[in-house]
Each structure stands twice: as structure tokens, then as C-alpha cells.
Design goal:
Helix 2 packs parallel to helix 3. By secondary structure, the protein is an alpha+beta fold. 33% of the residues lie in helices and 25% in strands. Strands 1, 2, 3, 4, 5, 6 and 7 form a seven-stranded mixed beta sheet that branches. The chain is built from three helices and seven strands; from the N terminus they run H-E-E-E-E-H-E-H-E-E.
């Protein structure tokens, strides 16, 4: 029983520390107005980005042309949030890509690869039943800041 209590205390310590130094990354236009989430949260040297769809900044409109342009816009949005949080595309550790249709995998992947030409981050890609704004893709990331 003591071992379990010690493990719980050790596991909870980083979360308590992270909560103390939690900073919201602010970036005008990164999140359409009225939505209840932050573009990113920074704790220590880790940046947790909210999922980005291919919304043109400052609007609620998706980039026109399907999954390729939407993926490009989502990754440009991610780049802006990373930079606002003190990071960059080169410091992304992990991405999760959500696709409304797995048949769009190749088109998404072609654009995605152009943003990570060498040493790409770890990634998971899953198909889902639907995405906000009727988007074809959504991408979330985890990155370091230094």
C-alpha cells in the first residue's frame, strides 16, 4: 500500500508544478471568437497546442479546395501559434492528425511532409466521424520551447 501512495505522490508532483507555471499563449485570430479554448498552453518548456483546422485566421471560413489546402492552412496556423509561444516547427515533438475521411490520407500526408522535410515529429493519424466547421482535417501538436 505504501508503494502505491509513493507512486501517486511522484506522479502528481509534475502536474502540481505544471499547474503553477501554466501560461496561455495569446494570438489574435488563432481561435475564432466565442470558442472556449486557448490556442496553446505553455508549462515549463513544453507547449501544448489545441487542434487547428484549416480556418483562415480571423474568420470562420475553411481554406477553399479540400483537404490539401485545409491541411496547409492548419499547419500555417500551427506555425503561428508555435511562434507566439516561443517555439517553431523544428521543435514539434508529436502531432495527432484527425481526418474526416481516411481516403484523404495521401493528400494530407503530401502537404504535411512539406512542413517537416527532415526528422519529422512522431505522429498518429486517425479517421473520425466529423470535425468542427465541417473540416476535413484537424491537427494538434506538442512542442518544446527551448
Amino acid at each position: 500500500m505504501r508503494t502505491a501512495a509513493v507512486l501517486f505522490v511522484l506522479a502528481a508532483a509534475p502536474m502540481a508544478l505544471a499547474a503553477q507555471d501554466r501560461q496561455v499563449v495569446q494570438l489574435p485570430g488563432a481561435v475564432p471568437s466565442g470558442l472556449p479554448f486557448s490556442p496553446a498552453i505553455r508549462t515549463g518548456n513544453i507547449l501544448y497546442l489545441s487542434g487547428q483546422v484549416g480556418i483562415v485566421p480571423g474568420t470562420r471560413q475553411l481554406a477553399a479546395g479540400g483537404v490539401g489546402p485545409e491541411t496547409r492552412q492548419a499547419l500555417e496556423n500551427i506555425r503561428r501559434v508555435l511562434e507566439a509561444g516561443g517555439s517553431s516547427m523544428q521543435r514539434v515533438l508529436k502531432c495527432t492528425v484527425f481526418l474526416a475521411d481516411i481516403a484523404d490520407y495521401a493528400a494530407m500526408n503530401e502537404v504535411y511532409a512539406s512542413f517537416f522535410p527532415s526528422d519529422p515529429p512522431a505522429r498518429s493519424t486517425v479517421a473520425v466521424g466529423g470535425l468542427a466547421f465541417g473540416a476535413k482535417t484537424e491537427i494538434e501538436c506538442l512542442a518544446t520551447t527551448g
